[in-house]
Structure formats: C-alpha cells, structure tokens
Amino acid sequence: MASLTLNKIVKRFGSLQVISDVDLSVEKGEFVVFVGPSGCGKSTLLRMIAGLEAISGGELRIGSEVMNDVAPAQRGIAMVFQSYALYPHMSVRKNMAFALETAGLPKPEVEARVNKAAAILQIQNLLDRKPKQLSGGQRQRVAIGRAIVRDPQIFLFDEPLSNLDAELRVQMRVEIAKLHRELGATMIYVTHDQVEAMTMADKIVVLRLGKVEQIGAPLDLYNNPANQFVAGFIGSPKMNFLDATLLSSDETGSVVSLAGQSLRIPRGLAAVHEGRVQLGIRPEHAMLSSGDIALGQMEIVLVEHLGGNTLLYGKLSDGQTLTVQVEDQARLGMGDTVQIFANAARCHLFTGDGRAFAAV
Amino acid sequence: MVGAAVQRQRAGRFVAMREGYGFLLPWFAGFFGLTLGPALFSLYLSFTKYDLVSDPRWIGMANYVRIATADAKFSQAMHVTFTYVFLAVPLKLAFALSIAMILNKGLRGLPIYRALFYLPSLLGGSVAIAILWREVFSADGLFNQVLAVFGIKGIGWVTTPETALYTLVLLTIWQFGSSMIIFLAGLRQIPQDMYEAASIDGASPRRQFFKITLPLLTPVIFFNAIVQTIDAFKAFTPSFIISEGTGGPVNSTLFYTLYLFQEAFAYFRMGYASALAWVLVMIIGSFTAVSFFMSRYWVHYDE
Amino acid sequence: MSERAEERLPGVQYSRWSGIRKHTMLCCVSLVMLYPLLWMVSSSMKPENEIFTSASLFPSHFDLSAYKRGWFGLDVSFGRFFLNSLIVSVLSVIGNVMSCSLAAFAFARLRFPGRHLWFSLMLGTLMLPYHVVLIPQYILFLNLDWIDTFLPLVVPKFLACDAFFIFLMVQFFRGIPRELDEAARIDGCSAWRIYWKIMLPLSTPVLATAAIFSFIFTWDDFFAPLIYLGDPTHYTSQVALRSFIDSTNQSDWGGLFAMSSLAVIPVFVFFVFFQRLLIEGIATTGMKR
Asked: Which end of chain B is less congested by CB atoms within 10 angstroms, N or C?
C-alpha cells in the first residue's frame, strides 16, 4: 500500500493538451474513482500513473518517490484492463504467474502466491483453463487475480466492468468493494458510470476535458456539487436546471425569481451576483405535496412507470421542462396538472458560467 | 528540477531508441547494404560503361541516349512487354472476376472450386510449369493433339514468332487463381443487407451488379490491377524457359527483364543494364503514379 | 407452381437449372485448367513413344522408367539438386521468419524516433523492382567471393530483404490488442520478452503463412540461382530442370516430365495441407500468387 500524489500533471499530444494541471493526493488504502464523460482524460490519467503514457509535465509520486520516468513494472502498480488483456495463449495459472516469473521469483513462491490469489477470488478450479474457455465474469476475476499476485502498492482499474452485462456488473462491483476491504489496498478506478463511482468510492474525482471539476466523497459531491457540470453528472435521473433571475444574494442566502414567484434558497455567493442564474433541483427532491417552497403548476407531458417509483416529465407555467421522481406508482397521466414543491435546503444555485453557490 | 526531468526524459527516449533500433538491426543491414546502397550504386553505374573487368568509365547520359534513340532491341523488348502486360493483365482480371462472381452466389462446393482454380496460380511460377507450357504448345504437344481430335492441324505455337507471345499471355491468364481469391474476399466484404435493401427497392440482379457490386469492388479491382501489372512488367521465367534464354523466336518473347538479363550476364554490359533497370523503374513508377491519379475518377472509397 | 412457390422467398427467381448450368461450366473450366498438369504427371508415367501421340491421361501401361532416367539424366543426380533446393529453401524460411518478424515487431509495436520514416522507406522497397539492385548485389557478392555458393541466395533472407513479409506481419501484429503489450510491460517485460513470449506465440498463423510462402517462393526461384550458381553440383532443382532442356537429353521428354512433376510436389504438398492458410494469406494481403 502506498499513497499517491499528483502535482500539476500535464499531458500533451503535440500541441493538444489533454490533461491540464491535475493535482490529487490519494491516501494509503483509499478507493478513488475517476469519473467523467468519454474523452475527459480519465483513462489517460490512469495510464500516466501506470507508466503507459509519458507524463508531459508535473510530478507523480508513489509513496515518497518521484515516478515520472520509472518503467511501469518498477512502479509497484498493477492494472486491470477494460478488455482484461489476458494472454490468450497461456493458462490462467500462467497468466497469473507471468509477472512473477518475469521478475525471476523462485518457483515455489510463484506457486504459493498464485494459489493464494486464486483462493481469494475462488478461481482455483479454473487455473488450468485458457482465457477463451472462461466466461466474462471469470475472465474479470482472473484479470484481478493477475493484479493481486503482484502484491502491488496500488491497484489501477480501467473501466473493468464495462464489458459485463448489467447483472454481473452489479455483482462484480460488490466483489471489488469487498476485495478492497479485505486487502486494504490503495485502488484507483476509472469509470464513466456515476453509479459505480457513487457506490464504490471513498473519494471521487470528476474530470471534464482534462481538468478536475471536483474531488470529494460521494455524498459531498451529491449534496454540494462545486459546479453545474458535477451537479448534472452525479445523480440519476439528472438534476433539473431551471432558468431563474437572482434578485438578491448575501451570506444568509439568496432570493431568486422563477415563473413569477420569489424563492428564498439558503445558498449564497461571497461576491454579490445578480442576473440570470440556474436553479438546480434533483428529480427526487421535487415533490407533489408539502415543501417549503412552491414552484407552481406543472402540466404532465409524459409519465414513466418504473414500478417502485414514477418519473413525471412536464412543463412549468413559464414553459421550462422539469422531471419529477415520485415514490411508488402515481395515478397520473398525460395532460394532468400538478403542483410542484421543494425543500429550499435541497435546491442548488449556479451562476451563468456554472459555478455553484455555497450552502450557508 | 526541470533539468532532471529533461534528463530523465532523454534516458527514456534512449531506451526506446535502443529497443526500436535493436529490433531493426537486421533490417537496417539489409536495407543499407543490399537495397539502398546497391540502388544508388546502380544509378551511378547507369551513367558508366562497365564490364566487371576494368573500372567503370563515366559516359554521362550516353546509355540513356542510346536506349531512347538507337537500340532496336530495346524497342522490341518494350513492344513485347507492353503487348504482354496490356493483354494478359486485363484478361486475367476479367476472368478472375467472372469466376469469382459465379462462385460468390452461394454455390455449393465453393471451397473445392476455389482450391482447384488456385492451384495453377500457386504452381505457376516454377520452371516446371514453364517447361510444361512449352511442351503443351509445341508442334506435337498436347494442344495440337486436342486440335487433332477435331481434325485441325496445329502449328508449333511457341516456335512461331506470331503466336509465341500469346502462349505466354495464356500462361498468365491460366494463373488467375490468386486474383480470384482477392475478388472473392472483396465480394464478401459487401454487406448482404445492401442487396436486400436493393431488392426491396426493386433493383434487378443486373442493376445490382452495376450499381452495387461493381462500384464497391473498385478498390479491390484497382489494387489487383496495380499488383498484377507491376508483376507482369517484371515477368522473367516463362519467357526465359520458352525461348531457352534467347527471347526468340525472332525476339518475339523478348521480355524487358530478359533483355536486361542478357545485357548484364551474357554481354556483361553492366552499365547499360543498370540504365535499363532504371528505365524499368521509371516505367513502373510512372505507370503507378498515373494509375493512382486516374483512380480518383473511377475508384469508389467509403471514407 | 403456386404450390411450391409458398416455400420460396417472394420475388426471388429460383432455377434448379441455373445451378446445374453453373456447376457444369465450372467443372469444364476446372478440367481445361488442370488438364495440362494432369497430362504432365501422366506423361511421366507413359512409355516414351506415347507422350506426343496421345492426349489421353491414361497410359497403355504404367512405366516408371522415366523417373530413373530423369533422376540420373544429368551428370549430377537430381537427388543432389533437390537437396540443394531444400537447403536453400529451409534456410530462407528461417531467415525470413526471424528477421522479418523482428523488424515487423519494431514497426508495429515500438515507439522510437524515426520509425515513421523507416516504415515508409520499407514500404518503398516493396515497390522497387529487384532488377535495380541486382547488378550491384552481384558485384558485391562477386567481391565477397560468394559466387557459386548458397550465400547470395540465403544471406539476404536473414537481413529482412523481403519487405513483403515484414508488411504481412506488421498487419497481423497490429491486430493483436495493444493492451496485451501494456499488461506485459506492467508485468515487467522488456521489449524482447514481449516479442518472444507474447507476440510470437500469438502470431503462429502469420508466421506459418510467411514460412510457407517463403518456402514456395524460394523453391520456385529461378532468377537468383541462375545468376549465382555455376557449378552443377550446386544447382537447385529449378536451374537443373532448365539445364535438362538445354542438354543433349532434349529428346527425353519422359525424364523431363518426371523431374518436373517431382519439382512441383513440395509446393503441391503445401497446397494440400495448408490451403486455408495460403488462401487467407492471399485474401488478407493481396499477394500476387
């Protein structure tokens, strides 16, 4: 186990800068998830940590050592690839033993470590098979096993579950989380799936266009997103953003006008800001009954029954669209009108350029 | 600190260099020692008179001037080679494409036919086949024996100047198998749903061929044509065997490469032969360049 | 018609006759194409006087004496020639597979400054007619005193001079997922170990294809042995066949056909056993043979 520090890490391909000034510190034993839309640079960043991509600028430390130009094998990391990257011509046992044999470890020790890892992952009965005789989930385990045997300081996962079907994905998610607890290892995990990020991470790093948007614990990101992008990216269904006008703002909160109503939201910006803002309300926080602020009437355009809850898509009186998630099965249909309420404490405000108002 | 980083990067680059160039070592030796070096040397030789015994003597453009103006045998070789190339290649490709079209229509026994048609193409480069061909078309050879069955008395096809070259054209067409395989692979690339869409749109099979198959196959046709033409310009063995190295009868099978071989290794005019080699490069090069230029007007690329 | 039409796809014209017609036509074409080959083999087993008097494939009685006559038809026996061909071909296979796979690995997988330049130069040599380098190479080998040895035929193969095989392998290597190399790097492999332990074992199809074509091309090669080999004891089978027709044995057609038949056997054997590899090799790379 080791800590990891990124200091102003930059990656350039020619004149194109794909990673800009990333600062991050990962504590020993922490489970950190890099999340972001495709092309945000999360995989590139992971590959730079692994040593598969050269670092154009900045400093990478694992433990206390600078690792910028150290060969991948000498960094004390292990990586699980999206495609698993199992050597197709080697048995599972060989796959897992390969790194140790390359390092010249004595045979009995190689065997002991392979067996131990196989036991952890419960794949002892697969050891003599070739990768193509395995199911997707089994391959995934072997890929993780190959990482475990090396006893790395840091585990790196590059979207490891994206090739699995939905059911298996949930199952493996739980297992990786369990494995993290058992091994107590530092893990860095890349995904584009915010659900995976929310469920697995101690700490989430949200990336967009090669820049860090926010770093924090899952619920922090959910409750206090630093900007509109993070607010929209974390949480499902996506947060509603409504155009509103800021009437006043101070350290005790802000007043905005939306569809002709004045709403007091307990969020503020140090510098007083006036004009157009975005009011953010998560669908699960918009309600049909009580609430301390009222958003007015909504005409329902579409209803999705999910069984356990219901999604209502509708239009407010000023024509802005809104999604509302209600518990259980709502007996509502297209064309019905409902009154929408919310709790002011769960509303968010964003400036025109996307910065969040802080909670007061 | 910046200095250290630069130094480390240099070290990393050095490892990459060492690995890359290490693996390329044999290729470098071959490239410089047996390809680039010789090519440059032959360019130099083409401006000299050289007989292997005395030193090369610089004569400027004299070899090229003679090739262009005063060498009747060169003109004959050009005539023979061009006739051969522009007869054999189109016929071979047309034949290969027709057979591929027939085979592609889900016919049973495709692998067997494909194998049988490929066999001559695989064996064809050998001296044995050239010898066989010579005997098939000799005065009392197989071809005339078959003609005799129909009461026709044939001539010695390989010994008659008017027909000798055509037996070589036939030999080339006979080896259509590999082109056919490439066409078959190309035909298989055309998605079936395109034909399904076309039949729903009411296109007849004939229209489908001209509007779907042929346009989508043009890259493969182009590729095949280039490869086969370049190869045909370089043909040597059959004309050497059929004419016993002379290019006869009456220089009627004097392929360019055979003429070059004679100049170099029968008369030891190494300078002149080098000039001939470079003229061949120019011919093939300009042919390829023109083809690529023309391809814009008829070759259909997806991207 | 209406009864059967129900089983058919609508609007598609089915004809049993078109299938039969096609098969008949294809069979005829195959027969015409293969007849000369069959004739060669059968002629080698006919009594001498029947070769040019009957187009039939079936000898009146089998007579294998031509094989014996042909085998010893030249001053040196054909056993020697076939052995020479075998030596040259096997060495060429080893040389080509080794040297070309090394170069191909570098081009396909390693990142080093200048690799694009070298790769395009390598592709350029694909286009360069052999005749341009022929004379200087001859002079070089002459000065090295290699004329009349196998060295001029074999050494270039160890120096990756057949760019075509490099190209073939680069194409294949590029199809192997890069993650495997990366996983191997993380597992501590050097470039050499990745090449040896990952790349080569995964490339057996292309290595086999290259080996087989390399063997066939070398076995059938006529030009280089013609130029470089002078002493009949060094002849390869192709040059020997040629001197067979030049020699006073002109009239021994049986012997000539017998030796020609033997000379195509190795190629034929590859054809029978590795047809699929050969056909795939051609289909994917567009080789000319």
From this structure: C
Domain count, chain B: 2
Helix (H) or strand (E) holding A298, with range, is strand A293-305
Beta carbons within 8 Å of B162's beta carbon, 6+ residues apart:
B252
Q: Which residues of A touch B8 (CB under 8 A)?
A: 68-69
Residue B283: enclosing H or E segment and its boundaries? helix B270-298
pLDDT of residue C72 exceeding 90, the answer is no
Chain B nearest CA to A75, separation (Å): 15
Residue B115 shares a structural domain with residue B187: yes
A342 beta partners: A286, A293
Q: Which of A7, A69, A74 to mutate to test the interface with B (most CBs of B within 10 A)?
A: A69
Nearest-CA distance from B162 to chain C in Å? 23
Residue A103 tokens, joined: 């390092």
Which chains sit next to C, with 3 or more Cβ pairs under 8 A? A, B
Q: Which residues of B touch C236 (CB under 8 A)?
A: none
CATH architecture of C74-246: Orthogonal Bundle (1.10)
How many other C-beta atoms are found inside a 10 Å radius of the C-beta of residue B70?
9
Range of B11's domain? 2-64
Question: Can you give the pLDDT of all 303 residues of chain B as single tens digits?
Answer: 445 555 555 556 677 788 889 999 999 999 999 999 999 999 999 999 998 888 899 998 889 988 988 888 999 999 999 999 999 999 999 999 999 988 887 677 888 888 899 999 888 888 889 888 888 888 888 888 888 888 888 888 888 888 889 999 999 999 999 899 999 988 888 888 888 888 888 888 888 888 888 888 898 899 889 989 998 998 888 888 888 888 878 888 999 999 999 999 999 999 999 999 999 999 999 999 999 998 888 888 765
CB pairs under 8 A between A and C: 54
Helix (H, G, I), strand (E, B) or coil at C260: helix
Residues A182 and A155: their CA atoms lie apart, in Å, by 14
Q: Quick check: helix, strand or coil at residue A217?
A: coil
The verdict on residue B258 lying in a domain is yes
Do B280 and B234 belong to one domain? yes
- Provide the ipTM: 0.87
- Same-domain pairing of B96 and B244: yes
Residue B108 and residue B27 share a domain: no
Q: Does B8 touch chain A (CB under 8 A)?
A: yes
Residue B303, in any domain of the structure: no
Q: Report all structural domains of chain A as residue ranges with CATH numbers, in order of start.
A: 4-232 (3.40.50.300), 237-359 (2.40.50.140)
Final residue of a structural domain among B33, B64, B95: B64
Give the residue from chain A lying closest to B8, CA to CA.
Answer: A69
Give A154-213 pLDDT, tens digit per residue.
Answer: 999 999 998 888 888 999 999 999 999 998 899 999 999 999 999 999 999 999 999 999
